[in-house]
Specification:
Blueprint (H helix, E strand, L loop, with lengths): L10 E6 L4 E8 L5 E8 L1 H5 L6 H19 L6 E9 L3 H18 L3 E5 H7 L11 E6 L4 E6 L5 E6 L5 H11 L6 H10 L23 H12 L6 H26 L5 E4 L6 H12 L5 E3 L9 H13 L18
Parallel strand pairs: 1-4, 4-5, 6-9, 9-10
Antiparallel strand pairs: 1-2, 2-3, 6-7, 7-8
Helix pairs in contact: 2-3, 4-10, 5-6, 5-7, 5-8, 6-8, 7-8, 8-9
Zinc ion (ZN) binds next to helix 4.
């Protein structure tokens, strides 16, 4: 379709800046199709620090977001609303997207749709299509590890969450301890390929606890002790054993949860849902329940504005608009 050409009931421009990805999308409201999407990641800039530096991320958003917005100008006449991630995330980076959304709302005289980032991840499954609920979702990202029972767009219940670090974050921290860079997930997964998981034994977190909850800080410390007492040649084995234990923990708690409620349909979302070892283990688990596994396309697993735009369509349909004067950021908000 030519830029700016009319299609359906108008479009929504969506902004994502909750962490270290600056991203803007344009979504067609009637068809739910993605019309435009661009993301500028800051991974290289943060890599040397082994994690995201919020202040640096904020300054980089202030450069990247306006540059992407320039490309969206041809669609300005079609816009019916501007959507923006306003919760949860880093306060200083959320504010960059929210400020841009406020400015657009005033300049174009269109309402704002505030979007919950976690809800956005769930809608990464349905870009360009209808949503299918009910659904049990495992959200694994840098900021979250949770099991969510999604009944409908309005009813989403978190039934398990992490007590400390998240699944993705534990990969980031192990990679940092090995001096590999950031983000750690893909780096550890790659290193684990050439390792033998049986060469190191780590205790599965909370394996004796009746709690259906997650914890990664103890595992991180076990891994740290192994790294400190090993040569670099052993890092692939440590990475492999770590990835296995971190994933076994998820599987063990999911099995426990499925005893109380069988999954009808199951999805993994979030940046760490790209992990192939995790995907395979979940597939094996689900085979016993004959539950289908839904996954987002790889390009939409990590943070992006396409998923925010898809969620925004649902908010638009429900007229969940907000005036720019009422727009706030909620860095610690949950679902
Ligand atoms: O969803 P996301 O882009 O950002 C947050 O909302 O946090 O997730 C980023 C997280 C990082 O911690 C990154 O290391 C992790 O996802 N990740 C992975 C993999 N790819 C990304 N973790 C494990 N294995 C991967 N292949
Ligand atoms: Zn995310």
């Amino acid at each position: 379709m030519a830029m700016g050409q009319r299609m359906g009931a108008g479009m929504i421009l969506s902004i994502e800046s909750s962490c270290d990805d600056s991203s803007i999308s344009i979504t067609d409201i009637a068809t739910k199709k993605l019309i435009y999407h661009k993301k500028i990641s800051q991974e290289l800039e943060h890599s040397k620090y082994g994690g995201v530096v919020p202040e640096l991320a904020s300054r980089l958003h202030a450069i990247a977001l306006p540059a992407i917005l320039e490309e969206c100008k041809p669609w300005f006449g079609e816009l019916k609303a501007v959507a923006v991630t306003n919760e949860p995330g880093l306060a200083v980076t959320l504010i960059e997207g929210v400020t841009m959304a406020k400015a657009l709302s005033i300049a174009l005289n269109i309402p704002i749709l505030p979007i919950n980032h976690l809800k956005g991840h769930i809608y990464s499954l349905f870009i360009g299509k209808e949503a299918q609920f009910p659904l049990t979702v495992l959200l694994v990202s840098g900021g979250h590890t949770q099991v969510i029972e999604v009944e409908s767009h309005e009813v989403m219940n978190t039934v398990a969450t992490t007590m400390d670090d998240s699944y993705g974050e534990s990969f980031d921290k192990v990679a940092k301890m090995m001096g590999l860079g950031y983000p750690g997930g893909p780096l550890i997964e790659k290193l684990a390929h050439s390792g033998d998981a049986s060469r190191f034994v780590f205790t599965v977190p909370l394996w004796q606890s009746p709690l259906i909850a997650f914890s990664y800080s103890g595992l991180k410390n076990q891994v740290r002790l192994s790294i400190e007492s090993s040569d670099e040649e052993e890092y692939p084995h440590i990475a492999s054993a770590f990835q296995k234990t971190a994933t076994d923990h998820l599987i063990q708690k999911l099995k426990k949860y499925f005893k109380t409620r069988k999954p009808e349909s199951f999805a993994i979302v979030g940046g760490a849902s790209a992990n192939l070892y995790l995907r395979t283990q979940i597939e094996t688990l689900l085979a016993g329940y004959k539950a289908p596994l839904l996954l987002a396309p790889l390009e939409f697993c990590a943070d992006n504005a396409a998923m925010i735009g898809r969620c925004a369509v649902e908010e638009f349909i429900r007229s969940n608009f907000i005036r720019h004067q009422e727009m706030v950021v909620n860095p610690r908000c949950k679902l």
